[in-house]
Amino acid sequence: MEIRKLNSLRALAALIVFVTHFSDITHWLNGSLGGGSGAYGVMLFFLLSGFLMSLLYLDTKFSRANIERYLLARAGRVLPLYLVIVFSSYLLTQNNYDILYNITGLNSLIGHLLFIHGESVLWSIPPEIQFYIIFVAFWSLAGERKGYIYLLIVAFMMFWYLADFPRLFGEIESIPYNFFSTLRTFPYFFIGVIFGLHYKSLKVPSYMKSNWFILALCLIPLLYPEFSPINEGDKKKMWLSYVSFICYEHSILLCCFFSTK
Asked: What is the pLDDT of residue 90?
C-alpha cells in the first residue's frame, strides 16, 4: 500500500533535519532554524515508521514465514548502509581521519553493532531496530487480542512519565549503552501504531480532506524553539514533554491522516 502524501511528509521531515544542521553550522538567519529543532523531523520519522508498520502488517497473518519476510525487509532497509557507515567510521577513526563519526575503539564498535549505542546522528538507528523487534510482539496480539496493544502502550507511557524519564545510559563491561535515547522515542513509534490501527476504518468527511495537509506545512515553523508558543520548559525538554508531543507531532500526523483518506 502506498500513501503518496506520506512521501511528502518524509521529505518534509528530512528537510527539517537538514535545515537544522545547516543553520547550526553556518548560523544562517542567526541560527534561528537550528538549536536542536531537527529532533522534530526525527520524531516525525518515528511516527511514520510506527504508522506504516501498523498499517502494513497488523492485518497480515502472524506466521513464521511472514515474520521472516518482515525481518528481512526491515533489515534490508536499514542495516547495509548503517553497517558500512559504522565500520568505515571505526576504521577511519583508528587511522586518525575524522571524516565520518568518532567510533574510537572496539567497545564503541560493539555498542553500535549491538544497537545499544549510537555516536552523533547514528543514535537514531538503535531505536528503529529495537522498535522493529517490539513490533513483532504487537503483531502477535493483533489477531484476537488487539486490546492488549493499547494496554501495553498506555502502560509504557504512564510508567515512563511517572518514573520521571530515567536516564538509563552508561557502560556494561566497557561497552557503552544508551537506553534513554531509545525509550524516549517509543511514544512516537507507539502512537504511530495506534493511528495505523484506525486508518482503514476512519471515515473522513469530504470537506475535511482538501486543505489540512497544506495547513500542516504552514504550521511547521511553529515547531522551532525560536518561534514556538510552547513554554520554555517544554521547549528544552523536547523529547520528554508530553505537552510538546501532543501539540506538535499529533497535529502533523492528524493533518496527514485526514488528507490521505
From this structure: 94
Give the Cα separation of 219 and 229 in Å (integer): 12
Read out DSSP for the chain? ---HHHHHHHHHHHHHHHHHHHHHHH-GGGGTT-TTTHHHHHHHHHHHHHHHHHHHHTTS---HHHHHHHHHHHHHHHHHHHHHHHHHHHHHHHTT--SS----SHHHHHHHHTTS---GGGGGHHHHHHHHHHHHHHHHHTTT-THHHHHHHHHHHHHHHHTT----EEEETTEEEEHHHHHTTHHHHHHHHHHHHHHTT----GGGTSSHHHHHHHHGGGGSTTT--S-HHHHHHGGG-HHHIIIIIIHHHHHHHHHT-
How, if at all, do strands 175-178 and 169-172 pair?
antiparallel
Q: How do residues 193-218 score in pLDDT, each as one tens digit?
A: 998 888 877 776 666 565 555 566 66
* Cα separation, 40 vs 227, whole angstroms: 14
pLDDT per residue as tens digits for the range 98-122: 888 999 899 999 999 999 999 988 9
Of 101, 99, 120, 119, nearest in space to 111 by CA: 119
Distance, in Å, from the CA atom of 5 to the CA atom of 184, rounded to the nearest integer, reads 27
Q: Is the pLDDT of residue 232 over 60?
A: no
> Which one is predicted more confidently, 197 or 39?
197
Residue with cell 529532533: 39
Q: Tell me which of 111 and 27 has the higher pLDDT.
A: 111
Tally of CB atoms within 10 A around 228:
18
